[in-house]
Structures
1.
Amino acid sequence: MISILYEDKDIIVVEKPPGIESQRARGFEPDMVSEIRKHINKLSTNSREAYVGVIHRLDKPVGGIMVYAKNKKAAASLSKQVSNHEMKKVYRTLVCGKPVDNFGIYVDYLWKDDKTNTSQIVEKGKEGAKEARLSYRVLGSGQVNDQEVSYLEVALYTGRHHQIRVQMAGHKTPVLGDRKYNPDGFSGRGNLALWACSLSFFHPVTGQKMEFFSQPKGQLFSLAEKYVK
């Protein structure tokens, strides 16, 4: 199941497929932690259960690059980089419509509704609201089934619940295929058109800068190649 982009004794960088949980799943559904643990156990003579530290998360329908720690020291270092905004994450997405500007920065306040597992843009003063910041640039646009679609590159500066999906929907350009935040929109075919395409961080032991890129995959992204220029 897992596609490994890099691995050493401290970290493992993988490409998560859409439809798989990035952390431990309930019941018998597959998840990335369990699959990585199986992989490590196959290569190890140690009888103890392998350590797999979750550093960041991707929504279940989102695919792309993730890094996991293989020991607690590496996990602490990588988690600190996340807290200090030193870990850089870039996404590619297809959205319905076209942003007003070809480049922009969105700064909103998001509030998570635990009952519905959704988030929404709210006023700054609402209790529990957190700042959400991202930047985007338009890579192209075109017509798909009489619907204008734009191909964007999005850089995240904060890591809020469903952040890209909520902010894009809130700014009138919802992510293609997002039935949660755009249930009446054109859904296309396949999974959500959101992919974690680039990840950079500093190696937790050597300090070396690590950079990885993954080309978006899936039926929806094939539309970008065909219609979006």
2.
Amino acid sequence: MIRHVVMFRFRDDADQAQRQTVYDAIAAMPEATGVTEAYAIGPDLGLAEDNFDFAVVGDFADQEAYFAYRDHPEHRRIILDIIRPAISDRASIQYEVS
């Protein structure tokens, strides 16, 4: 199984409506792509300084499923049209879960 973790920092000028649009678009990703085994998203709780603002964790059966998600046209559209305009920083990692 492949686990994909992404964290975002929103731009200072990203208002609540824009942040909600990002959340809603990311929440729709499993249904749009149809390849996730498990998927969790959420905003940071503010329990520590310097955290990222938002995280996504997706599990995929294998590398092929992850690549299908990563390269899916709807995923690409959401990244380009919705996420990138709202964020200032992004970190991600993919690793194998046994």
3.
Amino acid sequence: MALVTTKEMFEKAYAGHYAIGAFNINNMEIIQGVVRAAKSQNSAVILQVSKSALEYANPLYLKAMVDAAVAETGIDIALHLDHGPNLETVKKCIDAGFTSVMFDGSHYDYEENVAKTKEVVEYAHSRGVVVEAELGQLAGVEDDVNVDAANATYTDPDQAVDFVKRTGVDSLAIAIGTSHGAYKFKGDAKIDFERLEKITAKLEEAGFHNYPLVLHGASSVDQESVETCNKYGAKINGAKGMPAEMLREAAKMGICKINIDTDLRLAMTAAMRKSFAEKPEAFDPRGYCGAAREYIQEIVTRKIETALGSKDSMK
């Protein structure tokens, strides 16, 4: 058994009108919680690593742990670079054994984004690795991504077609209303489904059949986790995310990959805070880290069932 690319995952997801969950990983407990949930649901999964996670854990350690997850579960797992800032980082991940990479050139002007993305695609494809890119910018803060609302831009449907044609990118992350971090919006959540429909239709008309689109900033910011955090001393007020039913609808309209990071952070923090409060005498890391792993597994299982619809995608 070995890691796979996202190619076949996305083909099945598009045809089945569901999305594959892409969960950000930083350590062993998060990896185990995610893959054990995916295994229990017979679901393929993407484990993704940000630039700051690479710096925190080292790509060699992460790759070895993900290899262990493949051996333990036997499910299809892709190892993906999330928001790669440059070709140097992309090369480092490909050399370490990643099967998928994202280059995020959305902060460059359009032509520079095209040129830099094409360079990444040429390098990755020559080594059997698939590439995701981003067009449009999501607001919010998460790891190395920090975009204020004034500079956030929605993806233009015609530009999306031109971008895919000129770069040869395998999947495209689009901006249609989601946001990075725990504070995604004020008031009601909104996804521009009309824009999503136009992007999907125009790609189809241009000959890009069943083209996989990606939704970043898609954590639901589970209120149960937020409440538990706050109950045991946190100050996470006003955090809001994307409702599961909206994400599920997007998955039926061409979104094949949904990124989830904040929900895992909240789950881990909630479980550890609760453990510390209930067992103040305990100091064995396996206790509170184990509690965090179990709660992450519970949260990911719920995501697969409600937001993603990827249960039994391994059939």
4.
Amino acid sequence: MRQMGIKARWVKPYIQTTIDSDFSQDRKNILNEEFNPAHPDAVWCSDITYIWTFEGFVYLIPVLWIYIRGKSFLGC
């Protein structure tokens, strides 16, 4: 193999890290795209993701307060 320049090829095994779930039947849209809350602490928005580091996974969970300084935020 060395004389012919042939090398073994290693294929990294596929590992499923997330499982797709259908939450459409369990969750209800209680916000109904009304991003102008009447008072503070009425609407919060969040998401979760993970970032790979040398020590392992680090989870990032940003929480967005929709009611910002008396104005609504339309980015949620």
